[in-house]
Amino acid sequence: MEAARLARLGVVGEPEIGHDSFQGRLSIPYITKTGVVDLRFRSLNPAVEPKYMGMTGAETKMFNVLDIERAGDFIGVCEGELDTITLSSCVGIPCIGVPGANSWKKHYTRLLADFERVFVFADGDQPGKEFATSLARELPVTVVQMADGEDVNSSYVKFGADYIRDKAGLDG
C-alpha cells in the first residue's frame, strides 16, 4: 500500500543483536528533516503483548512532524502512529500524532499555535476523550470524536475517507 511505503513502514526480519524482541514486528520510523530520530515497533499479532515497544531509553516524540510544513491553515492531531498515517495519507488531512493518549508534552502546543484550525481526532474510548479534553485546555481545537469503540483506522475501514472529513466539517 502506498501509505505504508510513504511512511517507510517495514517488518523486522533480521533484528540487530540485542533487538530480538522486535523480530516480526511492524517497524514505525519517526522521520524528521534530518532523518529517522526514533523507531517504534507494533505487534502484528493481537494476542502478543506488549502491543507496542520502543527503543530502550528513547524519549517520547511527536510523530509525522513533516506534516506541519506541508499543512495549510489546518492540521489534525491524533493518538497513535497508524491513525496518523491513515489521516495523512488516506484521508488527506495533514496530521501529527503521539504514541498514546498520555504522551502529549506541553511544548508540542507551540508547534500548532499558528494554525487557524487544529482538529483533535479522539478515539472512542475514555483515554481518547481525556486526550481531547486535555488538548482543548491548551489550544483552541475542534474535537472530532470517533464513535464508541472506534478510532480513525476502524472508522476509515468501515466508512471511508469522506466520513472522517465530514465529521471534521471539511469538504471532500
Describe this structure in words.
Helices cover 32% and strands 23% of the residues. The chain is built from seven helices and eight strands, in the order αββββαβαβαβαβαα. With 172 residues, it is an alpha/beta fold. β2 (26-32) and β3 form a beta hairpin. It is globular, with a radius of gyration of 16 Å. The mean pLDDT is 92. It has two domains: 2-54, no CATH class; 66-168, 3-Layer(aba) Sandwich (Dna Topoisomerase Vi A Subunit, Chain: A, domain 2), CATH 3.40.1360. It starts with a helix and ends with a helix.
- Specify the number of helices: 7
Strand content: 15-25%
- The helix/strand class is alpha/beta
Using the coordinates above, name the CATH class of the largest domain: Alpha Beta
- Would you tell me the overall average pLDDT? 92
Could you please say which CATH topology of the largest domain applies here?
Dna Topoisomerase Vi A Subunit, Chain: A, domain 2
> Please, how many domains?
2
Helix content: 25-40%
- Report the end-to-end length measured between terminal Cα atoms: 22 Å
Low-pLDDT sequence parts: none
Largest sheet: 4 strands, antiparallel
CATH architecture of the largest domain: 3-Layer(aba) Sandwich
Order of helices and strands: HEEEEHEHEHEHEHH
Radius of gyration: 16 Å
Shape: globular
Largest sheet: spatial strand order: 1-2-3-4
Write the layout of secondary structure elements.
Elements: H1 2-6, E1 10-11, E2 26-32, E3 35-42, E4 52-54, H2 66-70, E5 74-79, H3 81-91, E6 95-98, H4 108-112, E7 117-122, H5 126-138, E8 142-145, H6 152-159, H7 161-168
Parallel strand pairs: 5-6, 5-7, 7-8
Antiparallel strand pairs: 1-2, 2-3, 3-4
